[in-house]
Design brief:
By secondary structure, the chain is mainly α. It has ten helices and no strands.
Amino acid sequence: MSEQDQEELFNANYSLAASCVVKICGKFDEDLHQEALEALWKAAGHFDKSKGTKFKAYAAKVIRNQLIDVGKKARAKRRDTSNNTSLDSRLGDDHSQIMGMEDIHVDVEGLKHAVTKREWRILVLRLRGYKIKEIAAEVGCSDGNVKATLDHVRKVAREFI
């Protein structure tokens, strides 16, 4: 594909990058839009219309994969940064911020004392956005064990809301 053809495809589908960012992230973000535009440019350069695929479908998949990779890298960077600190500093002193429930009155200290340190750690990691598999690897147990622990913590937490 010539550079002129690539540029025409890119310009004709410029708005696809922004719509993919909004669709995947729920809001527009300038940095992610730049990542999406780079992916759109790559898609335009690698597109082979002889395969019978529509360019928009192909480009949307390339953009989606790029945005997912960016998210994974950001999550891994946050995790690496937090792994360098102790569990106590990761939990912090203001537990209401960790819970993210400023409008709901929760006896966080009561909940913290009602569950084990391991259960509390699993809960905090989950509330921080870690996936079940990531928590299992961090804590050193199976996915099923993490799910069972979170179910138990939910039952205990009902008493403190």
